[in-house]
Amino acid sequence: MTSTVPPEADWNEAPTLLDGAMNLSLTVEQCDLAYWLGAVAQGTLRGRAETGHAPEAGTPAYMREPGALRDALVMELGYRSIAEEKATRILAHYVAQAPGLPELEFYTTQLVDEARHAMVFRRHLVELGMPAEGLVDEVARMSADYTKEILEPVEEFAVRTVRDEGDFIGGVAIFTIVIEGVLAPAAELSERKWHRLDPAASEIARGASIDEIRHLTVGSDILRRHLAAHPEYRPRLLDILRRGRQLWDDLPEEAYVLRREELFQEGMQRHRDLLDDYEVWPGRRLLDTTPRERYAAAERWTDEMAVVRLNHMGVPEALPVLGLT
Question: What is the pLDDT, as a whole number, of residue 1?
Answer without folding.
Answer: 37
